[in-house]
């Protein structure tokens, strides 16, 4: 039998249908990061200046490699969160600026290390640093940025903020090791998976918000509220990121669509799809359990993730965490900062990259 269209065209039409279904599944409040970016603009300009100044070194490869990743952009959500938390809590000085810069250095260091561990090809739309300078240099520059972060924390002379961010650094490392040891585990439960992403991703969001509140002199109740906001926002953000790996497109993600799949990462959309498609057990065992993948396997995996409702279920859970984040802001009176943080929670789920 002769197909009416070439097989390549049929495959592209089918893939487009999968992506359209994914987009339909995420028709939720759009939210916005722009409102917060505008409010925090003057403060973030100072944070960016600190970042540029503190990533300098007489060892030429250090600023070159650090700038490759830092200058690639990104939304700077974590330092932005530290700034917003401080302002929402009523800060009248700029004590939080060094903490915000420290948060960005911690985050950048973890990205450099993660890309080496995962063998990632792209980061923020650019070739991963380890492919240009090599894995050893990437790891060591990550270590340099961690050290810079702790220097900045010490300079704030806030033992409480130092404790918050030091603890976060430990928890993030634990989360990364947990993920590494449970990678390709097809039987990983949702509860354990949420524990992993709470540690490796959400903890830095939580610490950034809590440290910002502490720097503003917030009382315990408000510091706790902002920590809860950050934690729930981070969970929403990571779950949406997991969904984007199957429902997004490379040209908008800043990384290759399907990277999690190709690396054999057991993310929630994948785990839900595996549970919902028992007849595909052999396929999942081959492509994830044994990492024997062909060029067409990601397309099939995406069809199963979307078709089984796993993508939508992941985004529903992300939306639940975003709603929790917004609710804890009731501890604060209405203000531009609170409205902007509420919009950020919706954005974490509805974003396309």
What key attributes describe this structure?
353 residues, Farnesyl Diphosphate Synthase, 74% helix, globular, disordered N terminus
Write the layout of secondary structure elements.
Layout: H1 7-25, H2 34-54, H3 61-70, H4 77-88, H5 96-118, E1 122-123, E2 126-127, H6 129-133, H7 135-155, H8 159-182, H9 190-215, H10 220-247, H11 250-253, H12 259-262, H13 268-276, H14 281-289, H15 297-307, H16 310-328, H17 336-350
Antiparallel strand pairs: 1-2
Quick summary:
The chain has 353 residues and is mainly α. 74% of the residues lie in helices and 1% in strands.
Beta-strand share of residues = under 5%
Note poorly predicted spans: 1-26
The CATH topology is what?
A: Farnesyl Diphosphate Synthase
Mean pLDDT, to the nearest integer, reads 87
Count of alpha and pi helical runs: 17
Q: Could you describe the 3D structure shown?
A:
- This protein is an all-alpha fold and 353 residues long.
- The protein has 17 helices and 2 strands.
- The protein has a single domain (30-350), classed as Farnesyl Diphosphate Synthase (Orthogonal Bundle).
- Helix content is 74%, strand content 1%.
- The protein has a two-stranded antiparallel sheet with strand order 1-2.
- Helix 4 packs across helix 9 (190-215) and helix 9 crosses helix 10 (220-247).
- The longest helix has 28 residues, at 220-247.
- It starts with 6 loop residues before the first helix and ends with a helix.
- 47% of the residues are buried.
């Amino acid at each position: 039998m002769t197909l009416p269209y070439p097989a390549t065209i049929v495959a592209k039409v089918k893939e487009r249908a999968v992506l359209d279904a994914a987009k339909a599944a995420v028709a939720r409040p759009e939210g916005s990061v722009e409102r917060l970016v505008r409010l925090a603009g003057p403060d973030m300009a100072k944070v960016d200046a600190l970042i540029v100044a503190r990533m300098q070194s007489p060892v030429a490869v250090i600023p070159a490699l650090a700038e490759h990743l830092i200058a690639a952009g990104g939304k700077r959500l974590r330092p932005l969160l530290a700034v917003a938390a401080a302002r929402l809590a009523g800060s009248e000085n700029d004590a939080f600026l060094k903490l915000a810069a420290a948060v960005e250095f911690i985050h950048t260091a973890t990205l450099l290390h993660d890309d080496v561990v995962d063998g990632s090809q792209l980061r923020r739309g650019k070739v991963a640093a380890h492919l240009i300078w090599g894995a050893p240099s990437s790891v060591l520059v990550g270590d340099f940025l961690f050290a810079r972060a702790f220097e900045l924390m010490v300079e704030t002379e806030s033992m409480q903020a130092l404790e918050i961010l030091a603890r976060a650094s430990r928890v993030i490392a634990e989360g990364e090791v947990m993920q590494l040891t449970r990678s390709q585990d097809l039987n990983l439960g949702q509860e354990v998976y949420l524990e992993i992403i709470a540690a490796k991703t959400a903890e830095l969001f939580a610490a950034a918000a809590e440290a910002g509140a502490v720097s503003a002199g917030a009382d315990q109740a408000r510091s706790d509220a902002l920590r809860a906001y950050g934690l729930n926002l981070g969970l929403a953000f990571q779950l949406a990121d997991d969904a984007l790996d199957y429902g997004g497109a490379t040209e908008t993600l800043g990384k290759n669509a399907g990277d999690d799949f190709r690396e054999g990462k057991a993310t929630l959309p994948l785990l839900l799809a595996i549970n919902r498609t028992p007849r595909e057990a052999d396929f999942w065992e081959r492509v994830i359990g044994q990492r024997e993948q062909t060029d067409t396997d990601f397309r099939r995996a995406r069809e199963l993730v979307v078709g089984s409702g796993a993508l939508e279920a992941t985004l529903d859970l992300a939306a639940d965490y975003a709603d929790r984040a917004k609710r804890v802001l009731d501890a604060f009176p209405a203000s531009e900062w609170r409205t902007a943080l509420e919009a950020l929670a919706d954005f974490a789920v509805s974003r396309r990259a």
